[in-house]
Design brief:
The complex is a heterodimer.
Chain A lengths: L2 H7 L11 E11 L2 E10 L4 E5 L6 H8 L7 E8 L3 E4 L5 H9 L2 E4 L3 H4 L6 H11 L5 H14 L16 H13 L5 E5 L7 H18 L2 E5 L3 H7 L2 E6 L2 E7 H6 L4 H8 L5
Parallel strand pairs in A: 3-8, 3-9, 6-7, 7-8
Antiparallel strand pairs in A: 1-2, 1-4, 4-5, 9-10
Helix pairs in contact in A: 5-6, 5-7, 6-7
Chain B lengths: L5 E14 L5 E14 L3 E5 L6 H8 L7 E8 L2 E4 L5 H10 L1 E4 L11 H10 L5 H14 L16 H13 L5 E5 L7 H16 L3 E5 L3 H7 L2 E4 L4
Parallel strand pairs in B: 3-8, 3-9, 6-7, 7-8
Antiparallel strand pairs in B: 1-2, 1-4, 4-5
Helix pairs in contact in B: 3-4, 3-5
Classes of the chains: A alpha/beta, B alpha/beta.
Protein name (chain B): Methylphosphonate degradation complex, subunit phnL
Organism (chain B): Marinobacterium stanieri
Keywords (chain B): ATP-binding, Nucleotide-binding
């Protein structure tokens, strides 16, 4: 049985679970209206939160602040760590943040080359994360790398090839394998299907959907594609000009949008 | 579930739609709507097209928000007030206690018919072999040809997709079932199967709220007919 099910089926105990990530009064502005402000939310274990909105609405800035890559102007991001307990991301030491990034967290970038090392083999890209958390046995590392290549539908015969020899879709799947091999608790994704053609997108989405539910991952995913959000996210945050204008259950936000901007966003999708 | 146990308790629900991008036009749909449904009971909503039947059903599934009132649904020992519940509470409720079958199947690319049907039961942690057996049994009863089971339903005919959707909706023995015209474009033989499935669900104690345009289905399953304008 996977973790999500364990966490969600106990009707009487569900409210006792502590949030994995708590964000309070977070602000980060480059210029008035540019950045994100007044952000408050809790993310619970096994939850997939989608952040949607048009380009320039502050989605990626927010994701960077949440994943300890961009210091906010003010506010707190509290993470409930397996190793360190409850910690304030921007009040703790840099070294702790680095440990989180290579163990309990995964970050999937829009451009796979930002998340991969392009000049080492696919196997080494996966193995590197394992070595960073203390795995030393070469045979075990290679076996795990093969296992994860299979999980993301890459032929294990390509294990010694470099990512630069892979297609865009394969690179993206390799990036996902590299992130998930250490069984992170929280994964940040920035437009993971952006820039891929539609058939490759469908394959990647199906793969992500399965992995997320099988591993019981908590995910914060930024996307401007509402179909991606509907397929992957349990709940949504709609952003516009740096502010959250609407939040709620994914299908409720998309099927019964309340804010004028969300209504515009939803009604702008081409139907087929 | 025991007989006469209150499963659905709706009181004073208000719902209006405001179209901000079309001149802010606003129209009220539900006005002080209230309804109680007990275990083992099937309530059929009727009323003119546009009267708010579907809106009411979607509000019961928390797919639509409401502007006022309360909706309490039973989840085991608890009654969950869904208009104020957190998203994760609603997801948990839907997973184990609340089923919804519409006339449209939302297909996921690449996922086979069998997997589409099995998924809700798998998500409850039920053994995969058991899920598969139950899915196959339902697809068989609903006359979905076996050669289609391994294919993604995206390319199926409307009626076939609808039957896949019904199989998916009935694979978990949900204590509460919401049915939004599940028989809309089915032939008489398949309508009969759906009627049997609904009766079996009632017999095991499910509380059902449905919308059916076919009079024969309505006659066959309804314990109570309720005019949406009168609730």
């Amino acid at each position: 049985m996977n973790t999500v099910v364990d966490l969600l089926t106990s009707a009487s105990e569900w409210q006792d679970i502590a949030p994995l990530l708590s964000v309070r009064e977070l602000n980060k502005f480059y210029a008035p209206g540019k950045g994100c402000g007044d952000i408050n939310f809790d993310l619970y274990p096994g939850e997939v939160l989608g952040i949607v909105g048009e380009s320039g609405s502050g989605k990626s800035t927010l994701l960077s602040c949440l994943s300890a890559r961009l210091t906010p102007d003010s506010g707190n991001v509290i993470y409930n760590s397996e190793q360190f307990g409850e910690m304030d991301l921007y009040a703790c030491e840099e070294s702790m943040r680095r440990v989180l990034m290579r163990s309990e967290w995964g970050i999937v970038h829009q451009h796979a080359r930002d998340g991969l090392r392009m000049n080492v083999s696919a196997g080494a890209n996966i193995g590197e994360r394992l070595m960073a958390v203390g795995e030393r046995h070469y045979g075990d590392i290679r076996a795990k790398a093969e296992e994860w290549l299979t999980a993301v539908e890459i032929d294990t015969g390509r294990i010694d090839d470099r990512p630069s020899q892979f297609s865009g879709g394969m690179q993206q799947r390799l990036q996902i394998a590299r992130n998930l091999v250490t069984h992170p608790k929280l994964v940040f994704m920035d437009e993971p299907t952006g820039g891929l053609d539609v058939s490759v997108q469908a394959k990647l989405l199906d793969l992500l959907r399965n992995l997320v539910s099988r591993l019981g991952l908590s995910v914060i995913i930024v996307t401007h594609d509402l179909a991606v959000a509907r397929l992957l996210a349990h709940r949504l945050m709609v952003m516009r000009r740096g502010e959250v204008v609407e939040t709620g259950l994914t299908d409720q936000v998309l099927d019964d949008p309340q804010h004028p901007y969300t209504q515009l966003l939803v009604s702008s999708i081409l139907q087929n | 579930m025991t007989a006469n146990q209150l499963m659905i308790d709706v009181s004073g629900v208000e719902k209006a739609f405001t179209l901000h991008n079309q001149g802010g036009a606003s129209f009220g749909v539900l006005d002080n709507a209230s309804l109680q449904v007990q275990a083992g009971e099937c309530v059929v909503l009727h009323g003119q097209s546009g009267a708010g039947k579907s809106t009411f059903l979607k509000a019961l599934y928390a797919n639509y928000s409401v502007d006022g009132g309360e909706i309490r649904l039973r989840d085991g020992e608890q009654m969950v007030e869904i208009t104020s519940a957190l998203p994760r509470r609603i997801i948990a409720l839907r997973r184990q206690a609340l089923g919804y079958v519409s006339q449209f199947l939302r297909v996921i690319p690449r996922v086979s018919t069998l997997e589409v049907v099995m998924q809700p039961l798998l998500d409850l942690g039920v053994d995969a072999a058991l899920c598969e057996a139950k899915a196959k049994h339902l697809l068989q009863r609903l006359n979905v040809p076996e050669r289609l089971w391994s294919l993604a339903p995206g390319t199926f005919s409307g009626g076939e997709q609808q039957r896949v959707n019904i199989a998916r909706g009935f694979i978990v023995d949900y204590p509460i079932l919401l049915l939004d015209e599940p028989t809309a474009s089915l032939d008489a033989a398949n309508r009969k199967v759906v009627v049997e499935l609904i009766r079996e669900a009632k017999d095991r104690g499910a509380a059902i709220v449905g919308i059916f345009h076919d009079e024969d289905v309505r006659e066959a399953v309804a314990d109570r007919l309720v005019d949406i304008k009168a609730i």
